[in-house]
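Re: beginner question about structure tokens

> Can someone show what the tokenized structure looks like for a real chain? I only ever see the sequence side.

Sure, here's an example I had lying around. Input first:
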Amino acid sequence: MFLLNEAQIDTVLKDLLEVHLYDFTFYSRESFKRRINRLYKLEKYSSFQDFRVRLRSDEAYIDHFIDRITVNVTEMFRDHLNDAFAGGVANAYLPLGRGKRHDFSLMFACANPAPAASEAAMRIANHILRTA
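And the corresponding structure tokens:
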């Protein structure tokens, strides 16, 4: 099985930042490598160059790529959503898009998720407005 080497991982990180404005340098290097190598293997690329061309030039592919390599985070709330979490979500996700529109999801595991989701949206929006 072919695995991407360190230089190729660096190239992918650079391409993601330069072409798509996604900065994954804060991700765990080992986790990023595992996820990219898994995707590379599952999609059966014949060469790193084929993978790189698709990553750089196929706008539809980037959404699929991001979905496959990002980690889903689940947070359960016993009490009200706090501003520290809202700020953390905003600070973690906003720089990824840098002007592009990107969606993200929060999952609420509680008896009545609608109020929790509304509160989360308001707190995240307020944090964005305060820091803009």
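Each token stands for a local structural state, so reading them left to right follows the chain. Residues 6-69 form one domain.
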